[in-house]
């Protein structure tokens, strides 16, 4: 079951639509059954916030956009897959 949380700040991004885009890209790149489990949505939201450089949400989540990232987890948990998906969705600067 997906939980919805209302927040009291504005962001220019539709994170629900972006999450669906990430899932769709995962299906295209890896397997039609690709999905993001509910338990993984919070870390993915934080990752999307970082990649989008969304200062409002970053402040709310306590993310410092000027620091680097570390992605940690066991072999096969999807670290490289999610980074490949995120890279494919970014346009060149």
From TrEMBL:
Q: What is the name of this protein?
A: ATPase
Q: Which organism is it from?
A: Chitinophaga oryziterrae
């Amino acid at each position: 079951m997906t939980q919805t949380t209302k927040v009291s700040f504005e962001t220019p991004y539709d994170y629900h639509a972006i999450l669906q885009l990430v899932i769709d890209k995962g299906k295209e790149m890896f397997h039609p059954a690709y999905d993001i489990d509910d338990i993984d949505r919070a870390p993915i939201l934080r990752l999307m916030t970082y990649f989008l450089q969304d200062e409002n949400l970053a402040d709310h989540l306590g993310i410092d956009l000027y620091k680097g990232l570390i992605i940690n987890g066991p072999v096969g948990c999807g670290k490289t897959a999610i980074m490949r998906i995120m890279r494919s969705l970014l346009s060149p600067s």
